[in-house]
Amino acid sequence: MSRTIIVSNRLPTKVQRTDDSLTFQPSEGGLATGLGSIYREDDNVWVGWPGLFVETTEEEEYIAEQLRADSMAPVFLTEAEIRDFYEGFSNSTLWPTFHYFAQYATYEQEHWEAYVAVNEKFCQAVLELAGPDDTIWVHDYQLLLLPEMLRQQRPECTIGFFLHIPFPSHELIRVLPWRAELLRGMLGADLIGFHTFGYMRHFLSAVSQILGIPSLNGQVETPTRTVLVDAFPMGIDYKRYEQTASSETAQQHEQDYREALREARVILSIDRLDYTKGIAQRLRAFELLLQRYPEWREQVSLVMLVVPSRDQVPQYAALKEEIDELVGRINAQYRTISWNPIHYFYRSFPLEELVALYRLAEVALVTPMRDGMNLVAKEFIASKVDQRGVLILSERAGAARELSDAIIINPTDAGQLAEAMHDALVMPEEEQTQRMTAMQALVRQYDVFAWTKLFMDRLAYSKIKQLTMATE
Ligand code: G6P
């Protein structure tokens, strides 16, 4: 029987070191949920990095054994690989380039070499598990070379690739010294998926401009194979958010927060620490709201959660300082004894508390400078079981292609964002309900399980197509 192998940089379980012991925590991430039903089935397996640096082989063996019991196979990274592959090429070269922050990108040959070596390491780990007829689904920008590496070793395998971040204009891709290798790496797959048609078009034009390989209707004709390319906007586990939002625990938390905030109206912002998320710009826009509309002072608070991330990368550390400084300055200027303009948390929250905040918030600010999709927008919608609340959404998030009933803004336009917050706060309930109901229908239908199924079905189809063409 053939098996399905999922490969991503991070495993769906986070292994952490606390004092002398190791803890294993399932990740709350959307990908882990969506693929949960696949990798745990039959003989299937998920290959990835457990997220920490492991010093001893005893510890490696122990972790591998624990993970094996839950259908996972770890790829361990050395300290140098974490620095050069993860913080280096993945997050200081590819991440800024693909999010149109080319001014932050570094181009280090050593980082590139580590990227090639780690992709090979992942390839070896997969080859140990994969038979000739297996299906391998590779995820995201950390593993762009892996599809072609696998293709070389297992020509008959069915290989899918999905990119979770934007694919930018070929003008940005061509800046990369290793652009051709990266594109060829992706083309080792049978099916390449993106969140939006825009990203897909950019990819096809990069393949044509940089590699000179033409495509027609989303089919790239390489000299040896046809590669299908398509858009698959990712969804969330809608029911999980809807059910959690209806739970007594979430309602109790919401009540507690409401009392603690003395009934102030809440604008909510939730992100991983990242310069792509527009966090600093959002703070300045909130300050502008308080300046332009003094009537909102003491009436509205911004609750801002920033989840720590990649803080060893210099730009992230600098952003953390900028946020600390902005929050301090705005709060110091506007706060009163009984009211805080901004409630800022730099940590992650458990699901029930997160959902309680979604319930509580009248407005959610999802205003990234660039974002592949943004699932926070969808989680907010799924948690609004009373159909009230307004989503303010950046036109540069992939989610904006689907959620046209949000207030869509340009996140660099602080004035527009301040006005959008004001409009959201005065929006009649009837209009809120209309917009929310429409968005809920869409997010409920295209949930993460529908996304997984669509991709897997299309991948199976791509293989049948290849086989038919080969025999014609
Ligand atoms: C984004 C990427 C993922 C990544 C996640 C967290 O969503 O698309 O591939 O896993 O950020 O970032 P981290 O660097 O902590 O894995």
Automatic annotation (TrEMBL):
EC number annotated for this UniProt entry: 2.4.1.15
Alphabetized GO MF terms: alpha,alpha-trehalose-phosphate synthase (UDP-forming) activity; trehalose-phosphatase activity
Enzyme class: transferase
GO CC terms: cytosol
Catalytic activity, as annotated: D-glucose 6-phosphate + UDP-alpha-D-glucose = alpha,alpha-trehalose 6-phosphate + UDP + H(+)
Domain of life where this protein originates: Bacteria
Keyword field: Glycosyltransferase, Transferase
Pathway named in the protein's UniProt entry: Glycan biosynthesis; trehalose biosynthesis
BP GO terms, sorted: trehalose biosynthetic process
Subunit record text: Homotetramer.
Family listed: In the C-terminal section; belongs to the trehalose phosphatase family. Belongs to the glycosyltransferase 20 family.
Protein name as annotated: Alpha,alpha-trehalose-phosphate synthase
Organism: Hymenobacter taeanensis
Residue span relative to the full protein: 1 to 472 of 724
